[in-house]
Design a protein that fits this description.
This protein has about 90 residues and is an alpha+beta fold. Helix content is about 25%, strand content about 30%. It is built from 3 helices and 6 strands, in the order H-E-E-E-H-E-H-E-E. The radius of gyration is 14 Å and the shape is globular.
Length: about 90
């Protein structure tokens, strides 16, 4: 069975929002925590329906694997400074 794409999900009548970020996490018992987890959560909160929003870290790491549209700089609640975010326009699974 192949993986599901956003188009497959839309055919089910569901709307999804996704965020992608990378960094170090702390493992505590059966969960993860740390600044990276909080940053990913804040990025997800800014994603629009049917959008995959990525941090500048991901846009840099995956620039040859996907195309990105600049969504500008954002202040993320509880985090110092601003972060540049990007919408993933052509994910590798399409």
């Amino acid at each position: 069975m192949r993986g599901r794409t956003p188009r497959d999900v839309a055919n089910l009548g569901l709307v999804i929002r996704s965020a992608v970020h990378a960094g170090e996490v702390e493992i505590a018992e059966a969960s993860i925590r740390g600044v990276t987890v909080h940053e990913a959560s804040r990025i997800l909160a800014l994603a629009q329906p049917d959008e995959i929003l990525a941090s500048d870290t991901i846009a840099s790491l995956a620039r040859d694997a996907a195309t990105f549209e600049d969504r500008g700089e954002h202040e993320l609640r509880g985090m110092r400074g601003v972060r540049r975010l990007f919408a993933v326009c052509s994910p590798p699974f399409e």
